[in-house]
Amino acid sequence: MAADRRIVIENCAIATVDGHDTEYASGHVVLAGNRIESLGAGAAPEGLENVVRRIDASGHLVTPGLINTHHHFYQWITRGLATDHNLFDWLVALYPTWARIDEPMVRAAAQGSLAMMARGGVTTAMDHHYVFPRGSGDLSGAIIGAARDMGVRFTLARGSMDRSEKDGGLPPDFAVETLDGALAATEETVRQHHDSSFDAMTQVAVAPCSPFSVSTELLRDGAQLARRLGVRLHTHGSETVEEEKFCHELFGMGPTDYFESTGWLGEDVWMAHCVHMNDSDIAAFARSRTGVAHCPSSNARLAAGIARVPDMLAAGVPVGLGVDGTASNESGELHTELRNALLINRLGGHKESALNARQALRLGTYGGAQVLGRAAETGSLEPGKLADLVLWKLDTLAHASIADPVTALVFGAAAPVTASFVNGRQIVEDGRLLTADEDAIARATRDEAQRLARIAAEA
């Protein structure tokens, strides 16, 4: 939308998730082009020019769009498998199948993953893609193209693995890259696709997979590459007790100390899971401003444990929410993570005081923007920030008797999305995508899942 064209949203409750947690019981938001121009209590100012649309949002809560900080899109076509496994056994069961993915499969899986998130209120997504079998095509291009077509703001964490079965790793030999090949391909992806501008729709991070699937050289050189190119770094960290044991046996230190020794702590780094963190680990993350992508549903699905999110937040660690791959979180949408982050953390030592509804909403919005390095642009509703926001319908049977709208959104059932805007463009209306054919995506993902299953069975 042109910068001088305005959309006015009125009569809605608003949770800005700004630095003061400002809220309005009934207020307005004015969008001008791809920015939030103004917001506040009551009706919009009189005399606004070039208003192309007015939305009566009575019965709705307006929030920043949800921000997903960890995902593996390709897993959309391997959902529902190995459902009673811990992480290690799950990886052993699925890597032989994942090693057979190709470009059409990845494109369909990315479309399915993005569609599910977008229709559920996600406006900024990310994908950590690290499986690049030889001859599989342009997988990064397929993922980025799917996000562009969907109209979602996007970060591709260009992953890599160089430790295969012959090196004591899990992936088949043909499904990993060489050290030099991984670094070269990652650099090319950054140079071709990364946009550093304020309103960028596509960014790229450097993202070797995990300590037990990459060499120390790939971690160290990857960190140096990212900083030379001026992009962020992402990986898995401290997900299971087995990973901690592995790091002690192989490197003589725990995961956090190992990451620090390879240059992987810093305000330009965020890590997924971080379930098994002691006080010293949390202090190191806080001191270095290393971010965390908290994935409560996946952590529960794979019996990894309960991350110490309240302690991280108290120490000043930036924390966002992640769906994680849909082979370990079959629902594939982020609203569930608001609720599960709150409920699962109450099973830990802090019990009912672990997290409240507003803290959960902050994890899914501003916290996500922090760990993706985009808190100046998105994650809260403030004048001058990007027009990424969601209208949640809270006046139906599912929520109408809950007086507080933020409590309704977080504690209640998944709220219908009446409208979702990204960069000032509406991409969802009444729970349906405006930018893609959901039924066609469903058919394509089913067909590609079946094709992958046949290829894996024949192999």
UniProtKB/TrEMBL annotation:
EC number: 3.5.4.32
A Pfam family per the record: Amidohydro_1
GO molecular function: 8-oxoguanine deaminase activity
Domain (Amidohydrolase-related): residue spans on this chain: 61-425
Top-level taxon in the UniProt lineage: Bacteria
Record's keyword annotation contains Hydrolase: yes
Keyword annotations from UniProtKB, A to Z: Hydrolase
Keyword Transmembrane helix appears in the UniProt entry: no
NCBIfam families: PRK08203.1 (NF006055)
Protein name: 8-oxoguanine deaminase
Protein species of origin: Streptomyces tibetensis
